[in-house]
Write a structure and sequence with these properties.
Blueprint: E1 7-9, E2 16-18, H1 32-44, H2 49-54, H3 63-77, H4 98-108, H5 113-119, H6 132-151, H7 158-170, E3 191-192, E4 195-196
Helix pairs in contact: 1-6, 3-6, 6-7
Length: 207
């Protein structure tokens, strides 16, 4: 499906910029509703990465892409997004920390938001992580999506609705995150016959 990206002119500085729809985050192949639905299903259901992406209609992402989304959103929730000079790109505005997003949302919409955030303690099955760091990422991703649900319960995609709610306040994509955190490659090699394929490996003759 094609999405039009209009060209707009700022009435103050007269520069012309492309205007992305709120559901499209910069540098992401998939729209925010797809990312939200996949991450929400994985963090709440008993399905693993592969079974989760199989349930996405149309052209689904690779399961390792979902692995990266979970880690990236978890890092964003913990304000651990590593950006050059605290910017998404040189010359672009600095991204607001998640603590500021929650604080501003609490002021405008829900005074109990911060206490609700601190109370969330989800159960994460042990088979979904192999390290405490990964568990922390999944837990933080769950908390971010659950808070969005509490805020916008009438929305089909509450996390996307939260992004739309905050965009006029901060004038930047508020939940922009990196899918390539320190342990999450965007694409992993498949296992075939219990061996990991590595195309650059040097072939050796048997002794």
């Amino acid at each position: 499906m094609d999405t039009p990206v209009p060209l707009a002119q700022c009435k103050f500085c007269k520069t012309r910029r492309r205007v992305l729809p709120v559901e499209i985050l910069p540098y992401k192949t998939y729209g925010l509703p797809v990312i939200e639905a996949a991450c929400r299903h994985y963090t709440k259901a008993t399905d693993g990465l592969r079974n989760t992406v199989k349930k996405i209609p149309g052209v689904a992402p690779h399961y390792s892409t979902l692995h990266g989304w979970i880690g990236g959103m978890g890092e964003k929730a913990l304000d651990r997004v590593q950006l050059q000079n605290q910017r998404a790109k040189i010359g672009k505005p600095a991204l607001p920390p998640t603590s500021a997003l929650i604080s501003e949302t609490a002021k405008i919409k829900d005074p109990d938001l911060i206490s609700n955030w601190n109370k969330i303690d989800p159960y994460i099955p042990s088979w979904k992580y192999k390290s405490s760091f990964r568990k922390e990422m999944i837990t933080s991703c769950f908390k971010l999506l659950h808070i969005a649900f509490l805020l916008f319960q009438n929305s089909v995609y509450p996390f996307t609705q939260w992004e739309a709610f905050l965009r006029p306040v901060f004038n930047v994509p508020c939940f922009l995150f990196s899918s390539r955190n320190i342990i999450s490659a965007i694409q992993l090699s498949d296992f075939i016959n219990n061996l990991v394929l590595y195309e650059q490996a040097e072939k050796r003759e048997p002794p």
